[in-house]
Specification:
globular; alpha+beta
């Protein structure tokens, strides 16, 4: 499951969504305890977030709380983002955003915080950290002609530590 597929962001208010996530984590911790697996509350929150395709608990909460989807007009050089790339939860820095000849299709270049292994093989790895991808106006991955396809989705913009 990719990070933009978790459908808990439609609750009436932000605290309800966070409470739903915490309740899921509590059930996970209880289920693991029944199997003689001891885990801390924080550990169960992290596992829950990762099971939904997020990098960590903070990213999952941010996604649950977002009310307005990211739009390509919000993107800019140097902005930090969280999203998914070929099924991997990722964060990184936007390097460029340009319009393509196809209306509604944009080319975005990013530098990921951590390299992603894009090869599904036990024999070798193919790590990518600098990615160029095509997205639509809602920052979802598309092919050159604008039809949905695999690639990078930018799910939310992150605050830089210098903005805090």
């Amino acid at each position: 499951m990719t990070s933009n597929m978790l459908d808990i962001g439609h609750a009436d208010n932000q605290s309800e969504t966070t409470d739903a996530l915490k309740a899921q984590a509590k059930r996970l911790r209880k289920a693991l305890a029944a199997r003689d697996v001891s885990i801390s509350h924080a550990g169960s929150l992290e596992l829950l977030a990762q099971s939904h395709g997020y990098r960590d608990w903070n990213t999952a909460v941010a996604m649950a709380r977002r009310n307005i989807p990211t739009n390509v007009s919000d993107l800019g050089i140097g902005k930090r983002f969280a999203g998914s790339y070929l099924g991997h939860a990722v964060t990184g820095l936007i390097r460029s955003v340009t319009a393509s000849p196809t209306p509604g299709v944009f080319r975005v270049e990013v530098h990921l915080d951590e390299p992603v292994d894009v090869v599904e093989s036990k024999r070798f790895h193919g790590f990518r950290q600098r990615i160029a991808s095509r997205i639509n106006e809602q920052c979802e991955p598309v092919l050159t002609n604008g039809t949905p396809g695999p690639g990078l989705s930018i799910d939310l913009l992150l605050r830089d530590s210098s903005d805090a």
